[in-house]
Amino acid sequence: MSQPLLRVLCVEDDDDIRRILRLSLEKIGRMSVELVADPTQAIDSMIASRPQLVMLDWMMPGIDGPALFRKMRENPDTRAMPVVFVTAKASQRELAELRALGAAGAISKPFAPKDLPDQLRAIWSALP
Amino acid sequence: MSQPEESEQAPATTIDANAVIAERVAHLYSQLPISVALTFVVGLLATYELWELELSRLVGIWWGFIVVVSAASAALYVAYRRADPGVANAKRWMRWLSVCVVATGVGWGLAAAVFFPLNSNEERVFLTLLLAGLTSVGIALFAASWPLFAGYAASIVVPFTYVLATSGTRLFAEIALVLPFFYMIMVGISHRLHHVLASGYRLRQSYRRLTEEHHALNLRIEDQIQELLDAQREIQASGRKLALFSERAPIAVFEMDANGTILDMNPAAETVFGHAASELVGRNLIRTLIPQGEHALDQDWWSEFAARRNPEAGIRARCVRRDGLEIVCEFSLTPLVNEAQDIVSVIAQCRDITQQIEAERVKKEFTSTLSHELRTPLTSIIGSLQLINTGMFGTLDQDAAELALVAERNAQRLLDLINDILDLERIDSGRLSLNAEDVALDELLQESVVLNRAYAERFGVRLKLSAEPLKVLVHADRRRLLQVLTNLISNAAKFSPEGGQVELSVSCTDARVQVLVEDRGPGIPQEFRSRIFGRFAQADSALTRKKGGTGLGLAICKRLIELMGGEIGYADREGGGTSFHFRLPAQAMPARVLH
Asked: Are the beta carbons of B372 and A89 separated by less than 8 Å?
């Protein structure tokens, strides 16, 4: 992608991690971040704010990351958005399956906040 | 079966022929005493009657001859009895007998030739009767061998016929004319007797052989009956054993026919399914015990199984107990087929694995929860501390900054421990899937040196890669192999003295690549060596607290290397220190070795 990565939306149910994500991406990464705590509201927020990239937590109450990802694929407004999973438990096989479905990448939890913006940019620049 | 019988028969016929001769010889010898006695008595009588002054010398000589022949015959008889030769040398005994018998005949022939012409008619009649009698008695004595009789009779008849014919008396001349006819008739009769007796001998031989064979057959039948009885006892014993196995086994066992109808079942099957045997025997296992919609073991599956006739194992299916409770069972099904490949019966063994499955599920859920619930707060802790330690949100005073670093380092240690425990759990439950690919080992080694350099420098240790590592490919999971290398290098660095050096090298032998990680530390204590690859294995816990480490690293390394088809080990390094190694199958030989 030729454009720089500036707008990111994160779906994360844990308050503390949301706070760290904001500090990491805004202060270190100099990006604008929209944080969504309720995964059931996530698609509406995505359609409203049109982020360049979406970060999905894997395990969330109500609807988990992979299910939300599949819902995004079904919705024409969110279908094209690149998705990066943040996960503490996915096996290699599950990640491979999601990549096959079109996930842009995965970041394992716990992540290093000082490295997170660079990791995201690496995934972003590798996108076609 | 037929061939050995034929080969047995071939020598049997030759033995038969010899045996017939031996029988003949034995028969002839058995009559020899009569012949000797007759010759002696009649000879004595003739000597007495023919004794006259002018003939006394000739009669004396003749009597002497008869005595010698009789004595020789008697001696031969005694020798034969003593030797009891059986079949052996029958022909030789026959020759000696022929000599004696013909000599006897010659004796009587001499009597005819010498005494007949010299006597009056009265003595001539006496002689004629004696000779006729002796000749005809010869048939009874020697007919067992017609040539013997022919020789004996000829030695009497030929000289006698001659003296009769030349006696000048018409009556004697007429006897001389018929005597050859008598002779021929007698030889003819003896010839027939010879053959009749021969067939008798053969019959006796055959009978003897039949008896022997019959006896042998009886022995064989007795042996076979004994074998059958033994086999029966063994079958009964193993049957009892089998029944015991089935009765006392904790595993449910069913015997079914080809359609799946239950024929028999063991007590464990009653316990597992809550049905008495009497309720299930005669009913179809699948229709009775497997609920609708269980496709792992339904009628379609059974039809295919009955067509394939192959044993099946590890089939997990839901089953319904008599009380309506649903359980999960693991089935092993073994079809027993006859020679025509028809299923005689099917043995099904089955185990209630409901609790096992539940335990597996709970364990998996626990691991997954542990993983998530521990990592989520750790993400916040490590993340926050890292952000503080970047200094981007204001600087702390020196003590506070130091404490924040300590907190981050220990949070990281906790994370390492969780990761290691999860890794071990995944490996041990077989849920760790390796991403095997061709990995260039020299590049991976360089990468591991770069990644661990900073860590090693904390202990004042230098990492050194041997001058030019071999270019060689291994088929392995890149990430996991890097994990193993990191583990070995960090261990080596931890135990090296400050200012020390950790050396890495690669060598290749017999299609296997060996990686060495050598340190110059204090070596591995003797008492620790046996459990070095065990869980939570640490030689010195004080050192652990000082230098970190979970004590799971080597256990994980060993399992990972073994999963990749290799082996791991260690040895004391010459000149002090320890040398850890692992070996993996080489994917491609290094160019240097090829050329």
From this structure: yes
CATH node for B436-594: 3.30.565.10
CA B51 to chain CA centroid, Å, is 89
Statement: residue B8 has pLDDT above 80 = no
ipTM for this prediction? 0.81
Domain residue spans in chain B?
2-215, 249-352, 367-428, 436-594
% of chain B beyond a pLDDT of 90: 34
- Residue numbers in A near B375 (CB within 8 A): 88-89, 109-110
Whether residues A91 and B386 touch (CB distance < 8 A) is answered with: no
Q: Min CA distance, A109 vs chain B (Å)?
A: 6
> Looking up tokens 């759990």, which residue turns up?
B425
Of A91, A87, A85, which is closest to residue A53 (Cα–Cα)? A85
Q: Give tens-digit pLDDT for A12-60.
A: 988 999 999 999 999 889 999 999 999 989 999 999 999 999 999 888 8
Q: What angle do CA A44, A50, A51 make, to 5 degrees?
A: 110
Q: pLDDT band for position B592 (50/70/90)?
A: very low
- Substitution target in B376, B381, B427, B479 with the highest count of A β-carbons within 10 Å is B376
Range B249-352 has CATH code 3.60.15.10: no
How far, in whole angstroms, is CA B503 from its chain's centroid? 55
Please determine, looking at this structure, whether the domain spanning A7-126 carries the CATH number 3.40.1190.20.
no
Alpha-carbon distance of B314 to B330, in angstroms, equals 6
